Task: inverse folding
């Protein structure tokens, strides 16, 4: 005959196993229907060393189709090329915020900015920036103008800008904004002024 305390112990263990199985099944079901968190695939960059400075970011507003100058304080290194990269990264970070007036796709980033004398800047964005960018003439033009205006406003002497994707030339940003040539900074400045005067 099986002792009573052994029978009770086995019964309690079976109930515990059954309870754990039901809990695991319930949690697996919740995990399957829960929202998938977006993963930030941008590389981790070291913190910027340098004093915090007042800069001007030209922020695109999709709802009214304009660029507005916005002051910001960001740490900037002393090297001109690194300053250019940090300026544009600050702008992109603003666009990646959930309350952005001009949202960019998750993972969008500035890979590099090359300053080539005399007066040429080359902006190299990552694939996520271009591949996930929303298509549309105005949306794409605002992105391009925002990058160029921000760079030119804070780094005097830039006359032309070229935009690359992953270090390679691309025909368009997302089907409309032509990236095959060079952008004239004065023409972008006029475009920005025209966009603001129509409001």
Result:
């Amino acid at each position: 005959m099986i002792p009573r305390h052994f029978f009770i112990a086995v019964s309690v263990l079976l109930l515990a196993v059954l309870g754990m199985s039901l809990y695991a099944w319930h949690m697996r079901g919740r995990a399957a229907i829960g929202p998938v968190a977006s993963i930030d695939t941008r590389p981790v960059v070291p913190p910027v060393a340098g004093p915090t400075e007042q800069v001007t970011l030209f922020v695109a507003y999709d709802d009214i189709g304009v660029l507005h100058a916005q002051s910001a304080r960001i740490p900037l290194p002393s090297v001109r090329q690194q300053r250019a990269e940090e300026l544009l990264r600050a702008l992109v970070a603003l666009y990646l915020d959930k309350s952005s007036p001009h949202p960019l796709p998750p993972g969008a980033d500035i890979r590099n900015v090359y300053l080539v004398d005399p007066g040429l800047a080359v902006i190299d964005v990552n694939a996520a920036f271009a591949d996930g960018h929303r298509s549309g003439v105005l949306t794409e033009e605002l992105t391009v103008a925002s990058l160029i205006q921000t760079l030119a406003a804070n780094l005097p002497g830039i006359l032309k800008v070229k935009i690359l994707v992953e270090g390679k030339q691309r025909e368009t940003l997302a089907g409309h904004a032509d990236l095959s040539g060079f952008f004239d900074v004065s023409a972008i400045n006029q475009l920005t002024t025209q966009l603001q005067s129509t409001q």
Observations:
- Residues 52-197 form one domain.
- Residues 4-33 form the longest helix (30 residues).
